[in-house]
Amino acid sequence: MKPSTRFIVAACLVALFIAGCASQGPYLRLDPSLQKDVRVFEGTQYIPLIPLCDAYGLRWDWDPFMNTAAIERKGKIVLRAGSDVILVNGVEKRLDRPVLVTGSVVYVPLSLVRNGLNAIVETAPRYASQGQTYAPAQVAAPSGKYTIETIVLDAGHGGKDPGAISRRFRIKEKDQALYVARQLKKALEARGIRVIMTRSDDTFISLPGRVDIANRSDADLFVSIHLNSSRSRSLTGFECYYLSEATDDNSRALEAFENASLKLEEGTAVGENSKGLGTTLWDMKLTENRHESMELASHICRAVDRSFLTRNRGTKTARFYVLKGTRMPSVLVEVGYLSNRLEELKLKDQKYLDKAVDALVRGIEAYKSEYERTEGFTL
Ligand SMILES: [Zn+2]
User: Fold this and answer.
1) Distance in Å, CA 69 to ligand 1 centroid
2) Whole-model pTM?
């Protein structure tokens, strides 16, 4: 067989394979430019993830800690190296073979094209109204579904859990966090956003309790408000965290401190929320909102930066319990360091906290408008 004939036969086989597998509903044709990339591992045809994303105009995000990738356009697929389980718009599906990584290239079985890709490239079942076929050419008009309508505000600590306490004025983290959350609630409501508080007064709410309130609220965002403290008293500034592996010692120490409230709970089984879910699936669920959480964190940090309020220490990653359990884009802000003498003075002052609230509102608004304008950060 001449090389060109061989190529045509191979291309036909690929086309037949895809067509044969897609007997139900709309299916996606393998983009012709990808045929040269198809490789066979143990009898299964695979395609490298990045050229696949390029060909279909998908945005991709690889989380090296969890070995998961999120790919998206009009919907989202989460997949994990070594696993055949994928999440398509939050729904669990299976590929015929697991995702492979060889020589730092991620390969997905071609069955992904029919098993999920059509859902995020040509149709968006989660967002399209029933019976309506999604037409990519008409994406310009906003569907109205990509909106931020409800936000859960979570004032950290409370009741028997004071959080951090400053040295000189004995300011309690729980009080200042509640003040910030209340002011933020007013400001967001004035802008037409529905706000749900995990606590509105000085009561103790367990971390699982907070997660529960958020997950039952059908909210679009979750923002947890805290004030920081460190043994190193020179540290100052604002931080905004989203969920991923803690990347430095400070984050790890803070993670332990903020999660410590779990020990204060009575009669609550302190366990992973992953009960009943396989670890793989759970990690994928976490990856699902990672990009949005990261965007929200950076919008908030940018707003703080512009406010010249305090040093912006930037976006950071940690595994806070409340971020891990909530099934929506979520961030945790540390407004400032109670352990620093000068910052303690600032954080004591409600006028200063009001300015911090202004910056938070601007950050959330900037995220909201970008999310709505781009219909969920799609291309
Ligand atoms: Zn805290």
Assistant:
1) 30
2) 0.72
